[in-house]
Amino acid sequence: MNDPASDPLRAKQRLHWARAALGDAAATLQRASTDAGFRSYWRASSARGSHIVMDSPPSLEDVRPWLRMHDLLEPTGVRVPQVLAREPEQGFLLLEDLGIPTLARQINEDNADDWFEAAFDQLLRLQAIDVPEGFGVFGEALLQRDAGLFEEWFLQRHLGLQLDCGEVERLQLVQRRLMDNALAQGQVLTHRDFMPRNLMPVGDALAVLDFQDLVRGPIAYDPASLFKDAFLSWPLERVDGWLARYHARARTAGLPVPAWPQFLRDADWMGVQRHLKILGIFVRLRDRDGKPHYFADAPRFIRYLEEVLPRYTELAPLHDLLQRRIKPAMAEKDPA
Q1: What share of residues in the chain are helix, strand, coil (percent, to 5)?
Q2: Residue 266 phi/psi, 5° resolution?
Q3: What confidence score (pLDDT) does residue 147 get?
Q4: Residues 62, 33: contact at Cβ < 8 Å?
């Protein structure tokens, strides 16, 4: 799929709108970043300084859900980018420039403890928000869709695997256990992509980005996302320690977390559910959306699965499938 941001007509509209919003006919735009969807971000330089223009083509990605979530989070103290001008019908927003780069490029072994404490500050504020009536739910339908992404896109389309009836049954059993675990957890406002790439350092605090898909969902989902993302990997023992620290702070804040052993299991299982989904999404981004670079991180998610699956006998059928069918198929398709 061609990049919609490169369309000459759209580029002309974007520059015209930015100059009008900034009140500077000499303002210029330079590509700042993209994401996995159809939005693009542009750094605007003008007499007013540096700002960010979000371009979300209305026919491809409606910007109004992003605005609704922004306007839900901002009054509660969750740090989000300030919106300085908006034209949702055209798909343009003018935002404050939070700078570069994201936390994913600034965090390291030495500063991770402090940065994850700052991430907890934002996450606990977000999870404490009362979920509005009629809000989207990370429930059975979304969980079933996620399970289908792994099977359709990763197993079938990428690896070309045709599972026999017994393998299908065992995989579905594990998927059912993962879904039941997610549905049984305490439910809170859930970002669904709360990871260092979507956190922006602002002084010694963090701003939260890419929040348009907020739903009511399981409390362990966002902590699992924070430590098991597509761009950074940490030793499992250190991840367990950070999860314990989050758990202690969440209990103090009165959030609906269970006792620690159950929470660790919830986070591990939520992570497995998410890893399977992401493997499917990476293939879909590559094959359907023309964004192949995400797939380079697929082996990272296989390693995440290999770390955690041996902890739980209930997930043994997936571990067996991974070792016996998935890893050999991957080695055959992409030999080192």
Answers
A1: 55, 15, 30
A2: -60, -45
A3: 93
A4: no
Domains along the chain with CATH numbers: 4-96 (3.30.200.20), 103-333 (3.90.1200.10)
Q: Which of 260, 251, 195 is nearest to 221 (CA)?
A: 195
pLDDT in tens, 275-316: 999 999 999 999 998 989 889 999 999 999 999 999 999 999
Residue 34 phi/psi, 5-degree rounding, is -130, 175
Q: How far is Cα 146 from Cα 269, in angstroms, rounded to an integer?
A: 14
Of 207, 187, 189, 188, the C-alpha closest to 197 is 207
Query: 58-70 pLDDT, tens per residue?
Result: 999 999 999 999 9
Question: What H or E segment, with its residue span, contains residue 51?
Answer: strand 49-55
Facing residues of 40 across strands? 34, 55
Inter-axis angle of helices 140-149 and 165-184, nearest 10: 140
Taken in order 150, 152, 156, 162, the sign of the CA dihedral is positive
Question: 182 to each of 29, 167, 213, 293, 309, how far by Cα in Å?
Answer: 43, 23, 17, 30, 16
pLDDT, mean over the chain: 94
Strand partners, 205: 202
